[in-house]
Write a structure and sequence with these properties.
The chain is α+β, with helices and mostly antiparallel strands. 57% of the residues lie in helices and 17% in strands. It has a seven-stranded mixed beta sheet. A hairpin with a 4-residue loop joins β1 and β2.
Length: 339
């Protein structure tokens, strides 16, 4: 997994670079109001209300405050602060701690990040590290469908995971387009070292992409089957849809990895064929020049009975015979495609 990128654009609607949103909702899915971190415990004391908090690279002090407000487990809070965690889902009492990897195209390169999610019966907290788009879009989409948001924090978790998975599709599409361009370059007449390098870099990024998307399938599969106190039955079909999307991306990355391996092998094979053609041509010209060289070498020897000493037409005849032999060799080698 690549390094987490921190030099990323923030949500333009966010006033605090760490607290992207902190909102209280009613049991029927209506947004009540924006609240401060310190007001969270007051809202949770009110029946039929729950809280959605979105953070981006929070400080240790901010996470400690959230720990006090929600009663989060200290080990989960420690993981959320340090980041660089493996993708996982863990149970801490009556809450879940979920870690997923995210990906985003930054300056033409694929950057990877992490999202940590705390899920309770009446709250959801998302913590973003590194490359990841703001979940404000997912939150606004939920707020536009209050009848679904009334399903509670588990539906918000679905919206976040669906947003994470769907952001992989444009990256996969870019990989596919680049792979098509590289396949065309592989079959060009001239060998390009840059093509091999790009194929290798693309395969390396695909491996990292697969490591990011594959664990999401296991996480979503657990959410579909387990945790009845935290995940409502009405939300489970939505998680199955996220699982299908993750499976499609995973299959696409596997297919492209196989195609990249084949493209690299074909490229190397074509280079070998081109080298063989050069060697064949060199061997053909060497064979063509061998005949006159052999004949001329005989006349480099000093002996008395040389044909040209007694016959005036010997040299023209010798030249004609040599050219004839060369012509026959040329025709034979040309038909054999050695020239």
């Amino acid at each position: 997994m690549g390094q987490l990128s921190t030099n990323l654009p923030t949500d333009p609607s966010c006033k605090d670079p760490m607290v992207v949103n902190c909102v209280a909702y009613s049991a029927d899915g209506q947004k009540l109001r924006d609240i401060t971190i310190d007001e969270i415990s007051d809202v949770l004391e009110t029946p039929d209300q729950w809280v959605w908090v979105g953070l981006r690279e929070p400080t240790e002090e901010l996470l400690e405050t959230l720990q006090e407000e929600f009663g989060l487990h200290e080990l989960a809070v420690e993981d959320a602060h340090k980041a660089h965690q493996r993708a996982k889902i863990e149970v801490y009492g009556d809450s879940l701690f979920i870690v997923t990897h995210t990906a985003q195209t930054v300056n033409g390169k694929i950057a990877f990040g992490e999202t940590h999610v705390f899920l309770g019966k009446r709250y959801i907290v998302t913590v973003r590290h590194g490359a990841s788009l703001s979940y404000a879009t997912a939150r606004r989409g939920c707020e536009q469908t209050p009848e679904l948001l009334a399903l509670g924090p588990s539906y918000s978790l679905y919206a976040v995971l669906d947003f994470i998975v769907d952001n992989f599709f444009p990256i996969v599409r870019e990989f596919r387009e680049e792979l098509q361009e590289l396949e065309e370059e592989v079959f060009e007449d001239t060998f390009k070292r840059e093509t091999i390098r790009r194929l290798y870099d693309l395969k390396k990024e695909l491996v990292s992409l697969r490591l990011a998307i594959a664990p999401i399938q296991d996480i979503v599969n657990q959410l579909v089957r387990q945790y009845p106190t935290l995940v409502r039955d009405e939300v489970r079909p939505y998680f199955r849809d996220v699982y299908d999307h993750a499976a499609r991306i995973n299959e696409s990355t596997d297919t492209m990895r196989e195609m990249l391996t084949a493209a690299i092998s074909v490229n190397l094979a074509l280079v070998g064929v081109a080298q063989n053609e050069v060697v064949k041509r060199l061997a053909g010209w060497a064979a063509l020049l061998a005949a006159p060289t052999l004949i001329a070498s005989w006349y480099g020897m000093n002996f008395h009975d040389m044909p040209e000493l007694g016959r005036s037409g010997a040299y023209p005849t010798l030249i004609g015979v040599t050219l004839g032999i060369c012509a026959v060799l040329y025709v034979v080698l040309k038909r054999a495609k050695w020239l």
